């Protein structure tokens, strides 16, 4: 990941203070055109990205996907590992590719729809 997928500009590893306005949030990979281009993703302590760069719309869909999916394993109905295995099977992708932080808009929407259907069938 060296260029922003939205505007093609270089990306850089920076303090998350640039995004959140205060210290203590670690680092982010961020488009050098920020804030005009609102693409960024958090970084692990070793500097590796936690996912793929996302603009505001994609970040919101990823949050919605997590909000819809995470209760399945957080409730104890399944282990986290089993829940992600189930999700990978439902989406028809390998478990190694089943990371919401890597999903695009369509896949996030699919997770939200899948979980709405799952909830209806669980009731």
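Q: What amino acid sequence fits the structure above?
A:
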């Amino acid at each position: 990941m060296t260029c922003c997928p939205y505007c093609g500009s270089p990306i850089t590893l920076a303090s998350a203070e640039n995004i959140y306005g205060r210290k203590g949030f670690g680092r982010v990979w961020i488009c050098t055109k920020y804030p005009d281009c609102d693409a960024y993703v958090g970084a692990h302590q070793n500097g590796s990205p936690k996912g793929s760069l996302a603009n505001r719309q994609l970040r919101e869909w990823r949050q919605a996907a997590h909000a819809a999916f995470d209760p399945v394993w957080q409730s104890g109905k399944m282990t986290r590992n089993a829940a992600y295995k189930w999700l990978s099977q439902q989406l028809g992708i390998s478990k190694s590719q089943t990371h919401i932080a890597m999903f695009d808009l369509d896949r996030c929407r699919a997770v939200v729809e899948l979980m709405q259907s799952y909830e209806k069938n669980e009731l």
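Q: And what stands out in the fold?
A: The mean pLDDT is 94.
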